Amino acid sequence: MDIKKIPLLKNADGFRARIADLGLELPIEDSIEKAPESPLSKPLDIGGFKVGNRYAVHPMEGWDTTQDGKPTPDLIRRWERFGESGAKFIWGFEAMAVRHDGRANPNQLVLNEENAPLIGAAADRALEAHAKHFGTTSDLLWGYQLTHSGRFSRPNQKTVFEPSLAYRHPIVDRRYKVADDQAVMTDDEVKRLIEDYVNAAVLAEKSGVPFVDVKQCHGYLGHEFLSAFTRTGAYGGETLEERSRFAREIIAGIRQAAPKLIIGVRLSGFDWVPFKKGSADSPTGVPEDFKDLLPYRYGFGVNKNNPVEWDLTEPVQYLRMLKEWGVAVVNASCGSPYYNPHIQRPASAPPSDGYQPPEDPVVGVARQVAMVRELKKAVPEMPLVSSGITYLQEFIPQVAQALVRKGWTDSIGLGRMMLSYPRIVADSLENGSIETKKICRTFSDCTTAPRNGIKSGCYPLDEYYKVLPEFQQLKEIKLAEREAAKAAKAAVI
């Protein structure tokens, strides 16, 4: 497969030529525009709040809190850098479990009575950094992402899953060794969890937080309920009204108990069947065998007759429902980093537990862009934040300008890039240029590290992480994995 690295495209014309070769539709403008001319510098109304520009910082999962879910200096530094980025929408800072058993790792934030003041103090440091660089926080929307990691919960040990399931999934259960129904949550357990979400939101409002995200993406519990076709009882079934009850009751509870909060949803707008490595001598990703599972009833926004295609009928319906429930903005992602990362997070290199992409990663970017375009066309009244853009690297500002100017999206969210080069936002809007040596090249070290129990961060480019002992530890893990892959390939030959 021919994958052409982004830096080799040189300029906007080279980018357009590559897009044409791939048969994609992905617009780009000739140069980076400074504020106030850039469409990315224009304000955006979200829930009555005037957000100062069209850039958002995506919430990412942290692996560097204390064992009881409190902030650390590593976390505070990362949040300060988000504040310094120039983005005027910090979407949730990072994922915060609403209770201990919902943590995706033993060093993830937990938003509870004890931790809330410390988390609030960390947020204050980010706001202070923003005010220092940009003069005001009056046009900065920020908040907390509320989550329960569901089947991917690892609250106590880095390598031991302690899942909570919405339903049994024939492929993902096999991959993660779920052998019986014991981990499937009862309706009463779901109701208690809904109360925990609402209580966490109340803590946020009391702390002066203006925004919360009720997370429904990437295979975590909120996302899984949307595809709970096979679940019996109140929180699953054939209709979207039944499968969305979990989210609906959380959102209704927050609106009643914490009415000042602006509510958003980070949503996987479509999913696909899980992928796996093809073989030892061919590590390119291939879909798991699904021929005996048709029509496919284990994904949201999936073509049931061909689950490596989307069907946006229900996602469009769901956006309308969210709007009706009082949700002010949706951050549209897709898939899961656990079982189909190439559609969710297009990258030059896979994480250590992943597979080589079966397509040029720019195809994955264009797919997410097209999804948001379709959702925006169908539900224009819902503000949308786009995802999956980091892979475009030095072309991010020029593509982002085109997408916002054309009305394909309202805001551009950046995740991994915020770890290596958060100032890409301010540099592009203030100077009309960016520093290419700081750009995230999507080598996936920021995922490989936490997959192996190491704290999150940009090890290749951030000098802060290069002097840590974890830097050498990560190098050794990657070397061992390369040697193992060579040995496996040699054994096949």
Which architecture would the CATH scheme give at its second level? Alpha-Beta Barrel
Strand content: 5-15%
For the secondary structure, the number of strands is 13
Model regions low in confidence, pLDDT < 50 over at least 5 residues: none
Major sheet: 8 strands, parallel, barrel
Q: What is CATH's topology name?
A: TIM Barrel
Count the domains.
Answer: 1
Helix-strand category = alpha/beta
Percent range for helical residues? Answer: 25-40%
Order of strands, widest sheet: 3-4-6-7-8-11-12-13
Task: Please name the fourth-level CATH homologous superfamily.
Answer: Aldolase class I
CATH C-level class? Alpha Beta
Ends distance? 21 Å
Q: Can you write the helix and strand succession as a string?
A: HEEEHEEHEHHEHHHEEEHEHHEHEHHHHH
User: What is the overall pLDDT average?
Assistant: 96
Can you count the helices?
17
Sum up the overall morphology in one term: globular
Protein described:
The protein has 493 residues and is of the alpha/beta class. The chain has a single domain, classed as Alpha-Beta Barrel (TIM Barrel). The protein contains 17 helices and 13 strands. An eight-stranded parallel beta barrel has the order 3-4-6-7-8-11-12-13, surrounded by four helices. A two-stranded antiparallel ribbon has the order 1-2. It has a two-stranded antiparallel sheet with strand order 9-10. Strand 1 and strand 2 form a beta hairpin. Helix 2 packs parallel to helix 3 and helix 5 packs parallel to helix 8. The longest helix has 24 residues. It is globular and about 55 Å long. 51% of the residues are buried. The mean pLDDT is 96.
